[in-house]
Specification:
Strand content: 25-35%
Mean pLDDT: 86
Low-confidence stretches: none
Number of strands: 4
CATH class: Alpha Beta
Shape: flat
Order of helices and strands: HEEHEE
Strand order of the largest sheet: 1-3-4-2
Number of domains: 1
Distance between the termini: 53 Å
Helix content: 25-40%
Oligomer: single chain
CATH topology: Translation Initiation Factor IF3
CATH architecture: 2-Layer Sandwich
């Protein structure tokens, strides 16, 4: 009984963590522009997971940004290639993850 309860608690914990990540990912701003009009600091060069559609690739990039604590992904791009067959293309979104800076000087720091 104890191990079953622990497994249930872990599943609930994983589910709420996944929900929280999904909420954070939905708020990650993605732009093809390489800079922003507000101050920021670069966090990491990011790439999502290969996906079967462009929309899934963008969602994966947002999720990767959220995992790294990013507020936005700038200079975003999308590439595709023939997957296992010509009829199953793969898409990959990438860009530079950034966090908005609290500075008020208006100059990008990235």
């Amino acid at each position: 009984m104890f191990s079953r309860k622990r497994a249930t608690d872990q599943t609930i914990g994983q589910s709420s963590a996944a929900d929280e990540l999904a909420q954070r990912a939905a708020s990650v701003f993605v732009s093809t522009l390489p800079t922003a009009q507000r101050p920021y600091r670069q966090v990491a060069v990011l790439a999502g997971e290969p996906a079967q559609s462009a929309e899934q690739a963008w969602q994966s990039l947002r999720r990767r940004g959220a995992e790294h604590g990013c507020d936005a992904v700038l200079g975003a791009g999308l590439t595709s290639w023939a997957g296992d067959s010509v009829f199953m293309p793969q898409f990959l979104a990438f860009g530079t993850g950034v966090s908005w800076s609290p500075e008020e000087d208006g100059e990008p720091t990235g």
